[in-house]
Design brief:
Shape: elongated
Strand content: under 5%
Largest sheet: 2 strands, antiparallel
Number of domains: 2
Order of helices and strands: HHHHHHHEEHHHHHH
Distance between the termini: 116 Å
Radius of gyration: 33 Å
Helix content: over 70%
Structural class: mainly alpha
Number of helices: 13
Oligomer: single chain
């Protein structure tokens, strides 16, 4: 069922390899192409996250107001999300999409490095007349920048530590890029907003754990997938920088915070003055007193003239 998709991505890798005959660069260019296709979805997730951050005061107000009525609280929260066109699911969707993309990339790379009986590659999903097929069909390694992209880091460590150094550097770069991305998100989401929102706390925990998963993937999967991980993480870092650069109002403290619905706003009456009336009544009364006080003075002047 997925073979046409595998074939299409393998064709892209082959086309990029024809332009620049380097396996790692071809995989990186394929990754950038996929990330560009997913860019609208990722951009929407960034905007949703920024909108949720600005909605935290109103969400907290709703939670406190309807703390004894979970059903009404949920209805108010959903109405607030609908009013401002955002949803916490929009933030989590790109992370969920990564899993099938990872599966597809793994299958494509596995197909490219499929081995025959003699140990050489017998690539799948590739046109046999392509340059990439011809290069792989007569080779047992997929070398790029001193790394066999068809080999796993665990097997490289078994050979020798020196042989595994390039693999370990690549994995370290992937993990560092993942935490760099997390640091960018944390700087744009104040800690108090995260503490007040259980869902945001869960998202923060997931983003902290997810880079550590790269250690498992990095050691057990072919190094070519680490090229995909590193390129996609760097792309997302650049993507976040670009979105906030183009839309600075998304940053905390920028732009106007969303107003509370008119029906739910508390109208606090004005504090009465010590005389028992409000400010306007007091001014009116003072005006009457002034007018009344000035009248006798005018009459006394007229009597003197007579």
């Amino acid at each position: 069922m997925f073979d046409p998709l595998f074939t299409g991505l393998a064709w892209l890798v082959s086309a990029f390899y024809a332009l620049i005959p380097n396996y790692a660069i071809a995989i990186a260019l394929l990754t950038i192409t996929v990330m560009l296709i997913l860019f609208p979805l990722n951009a929407k997730a960034v905007r949703s996250q920024a909108a949720l951050t600005k909605l935290q005061p109103e969400l907290k107000r709703i939670q406190q107001k309807y703390k004894d009525d979970p059903q009404q609280q949920n209805a108010e929260v959903m109405a607030l999300f609908k009013e401002h066109g955002t949803s916490p699911f929009g933030c989590a969707l790109p992370m969920l999409v990564q899993m099938p993309v990872l599966f597809i990339m793994y299958q494509v790379l596995r197909g490219l490095t499929n081995r025959g009986e003699d140990g050489t590659f017998d690539p799948k999903y590739l046109d046999q007349g392509s340059e990439l097929y011809q290069r792989l069909h007569t080779s047992k390694t997929m070398n790029a920048f001193g790394i066999d992209l068809a080999e796993t880091a665990s097997k490289a460590v078994e050979q020798s530590f020196v042989h595994a150094i390039p693999f370990l550097i690549l994995i370290a770069g992937v993990v560092a890029a993942g935490y760099w991305q997390q640091a960018m998100i944390s700087r744009r989401n104040p800690q108090q907003n995260i503490e007040d929102n259980p869902m945001a706390k869960q998202m923060q925990t997931m983003t902290r754990i997810f880079p550590l998963m790269y250690l498992v993937f990095g050691f057990t999967l072919p190094a070519g997938l680490n090229v995909y991980f590193l390129t996609s993480s760097l792309f997302r870092i650049a993507q976040q920088w670009l979105i906030y650069r183009m839309h600075p109002e998304l940053l905390p403290g920028r732009g106007n915070p969303p107003a509370a619905p008119a029906a739910s706003r508390d109208v606090t009456p004005k504090k009465p003055t010590p005389n028992g009336g409000n400010g306007a009544a007091k001014s009116i009364e003072s005006g009457r007193v002034t007018a009344g006080a000035s009248a006798p003075r005018q009459r006394s002047k007229k009597k003197k003239k007579r």
